[in-house]
Amino acid sequence: MADASITPLAGFLNSALGLAVAFALGTMIGAERQYRQRTAGLRTNVLVAIGASAFVDIGMRLTGTAGAVQVTAYVVSGVGFLGAGVIMKEGLNIRGLNTAATLWCSAAVGAFAGTHLIGEAVLLTASVLAGNTLLRPLINLINRAPIDERKTEATYEVRLTTEAANVVSARDLLVETLEAAHYPVSDVEIEERPEDRVEIVATLVSTAIEPDEIETVIRTLKSAPAVRDASWTVRTSD
User: Fold this and answer.
1) Element (H, E) at 144
2) Predicted structure pTM score
3) Domain region containing 167
4) Is the distance from CB of 182 to CB of 212 less than 8 angstroms?
5) Is residue 48 domain-shared with residue 120, that is, in the same domain?
6) CA 5 remoteness from chain centre
7) What digits encode the pLDDT tens for the residues 60-118?
């Protein structure tokens, strides 16, 4: 239950302090997002922070610490749905994950403020801002580093184009050539192409290959009379 010794005025002032802190810290987080022109900017982060603060404060005012804990659990799940709204899929790329995570952290800042843990709220705000700003140079450095495909988990595919009439023999040639090079095949798909041609796509079991070896396989396949073209591709895992 709520502490009966707290007067209505004291409770009001505590709520006002929590909301003010949530507003100020949410503004700091949101300003950085607004500067970056993100989907969830200044107003969204402020509203998430003060909303979380208000809900947690209501729980504390009504049933004390137990109420604050219960409401915080609902705030965490509720902000998860809000964050899902800013995540967008564009082709093979997904955007908005960092913005959604920032909203989640803004809610945590508000929850700290609502329970009057001001120091913790300030510390979390500093951590969020550091993560969104100070880590940016490191991210750029990592992104510019060349990828050694032999050291990454990836899905490798070998593609072979042939005439529709030769699909069976070409498929067998593809599988046999890859297995002879010690690259076993996990799956083979047939895709139709214009001008009565088909593309045979072999997915390799291997998660790493030697580029020189696979290039030798490609040259061998291209030399076959029934093969119009051959190539290999790689898709890195998330």
Assistant:
1) helix 136-144
2) 0.58
3) 149-236
4) no
5) yes
6) 47
7) 888 888 888 888 888 888 888 777 777 766 554 567 788 888 899 999 999 999 998 99
E strand map for the chain:
88-90, 93-95, 154-163, 185-193, 197-204, 227-236
Which pairs from 124-130 meet CB under 8 Å and 24+ separation?
125/25, 125/28, 125/29, 128/29, 128/102, 129/28, 129/29, 129/32
Domain count, the chain: 2
Q: What is the C-alpha separation between 144 and 211, in angstroms, rounded? A: 21
Tell which of 128, 144, 160 closes a domain: 144
54 and 155 housed in the same domain: no
Residue 92 lies in a domain: yes
- For residue 131, the one-letter residue type is G
Question: 91, 110, 144 — which closes off a domain?
Answer: 144
Same domain, 160 and 229: yes
